[in-house]
């Protein structure tokens, strides 16, 4: 069983009962973050309730052997989560996601550390050669974060209209860094 994953500022850990209240808050108040995450997906009470219900079900099953998501904690405060999903349900196309809902915590390098830890964990535990990530060109923080970590853009042609503006859907990929050979 994997213990907490600790970086310098960030700890990635399993979901707890107390976290559910944070999710209820994040999905009902201060929804600014959802405008960056996937703004074309409308946030509704039903979506929020389903999301928290799924987390509750996850919690009742106990910690996962191989993690598909983890909570981000900084100085003992739960501030967001990292996740993973299969693009178009294809097992070889695992993408990572990250959300830090409260903007007080943005632009402090927390996302960079959390996503690096998460990718390291996935490469170690899932036997994949590549990991993917998806966002849109309007989410500059996410674009810069992905590039800074070492993702490369592999798809940028799909156009997305949002609020009367045209953006591009972006797909990124990062490869496993090979272990050093020989002595
Ligand atoms: C996207 C997100 C995870 C980034 O986390 P973070 O902790 O803010 O990221 P970091 O501080 O490590 O890096 C942010 C980068 O964006 C840059 N940045 C900060 N504010 C910016 C702005 N207003 N415009 C453009 N770039 C900005 C930072 O300089 C940094 O780039 P650099 O390392 O090249 O200097 C976080 O902002 C978030 O959760 N946003 C809401 C949800 C979301 O969009 N999730 C991603 C879904 S794909």
* Helix/strand structural class: alpha+beta
The global form is globular
Helix/strand order:
EEHHHEEEHEHEEE
Question: Low-confidence spans: pLDDT under 50, at least 5 residues?
Answer: none
Report the mean per-residue pLDDT as an integer.
93
The CATH topology: Aminopeptidase
Percent in strands: 25-35%
CATH evolutionary superfamily: Gcn5-related N-acetyltransferase (GNAT)
Work out the helix count: 5
Q: How many beta strands in the DSSP annotation? A: 9
Please tag this protein with its features.
alpha+beta; 9-stranded mixed beta sheet; Aminopeptidase; binds coenzyme A; globular
What does this structure look like?
The protein has 183 residues and is α+β, with helices and mostly antiparallel strands. The chain has a single domain (5-175), classed as 3-Layer(aba) Sandwich (Aminopeptidase). It is 31% helix and 30% strand. The protein contains five helices and nine strands; from the N terminus they run ββαααβββαβαβββ. The chain has helices spanning 19-26, 32-37, 45-60, 110-126, 140-149; strands at 5-6, 10-13, 69-74, 77-86, 94-99, 130-136, 152-155, 159-162, 165-175. α4 crosses α5. The model has no long low-confidence stretch (mean pLDDT 93). Residues 33, 36-37, 97-100, 106-112, 135, 139-142, 144-145, 148 line the site of coenzyme A (COA).
């Amino acid at each position: 069983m994997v213990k907490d994953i600790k970086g310098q500022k960030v700890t990635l850990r399993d979901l707890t009962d107390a976290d559910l209240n944070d999710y209820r808050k994040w999905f009902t108040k201060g929804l600014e973050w959802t405008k960056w995450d996937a703004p074309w997906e409308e946030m509704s009470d039903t979506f929020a309730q389903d999301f928290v219900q799924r987390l509750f079900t996850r919690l009742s099953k106990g910690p996962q052997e191989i993690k598909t998501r983890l909570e981000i904690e900084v100085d003992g405060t739960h501030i967001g989560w990292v996740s993973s999903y299969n693009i178009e349900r294809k097992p070889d196309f695992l993408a990572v996601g990250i959300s830090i809902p409260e903007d007080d915590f943005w632009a402090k390098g927390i996302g960079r550390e959390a996503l690096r830890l998460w990718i390291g964990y996935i490469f170690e535990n899932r036997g994949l050669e590549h990991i993917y990530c998806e966002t849109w060109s309007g989410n500059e923080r996410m674009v810069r974060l992905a590039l800074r970590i070492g993702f490369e853009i592999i798809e940028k042609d799909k156009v997305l209209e949002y609020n009367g503006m045209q953006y591009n859907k972006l797909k990124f990929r990062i490869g496993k860094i090979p272990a050093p050979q020989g002595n």
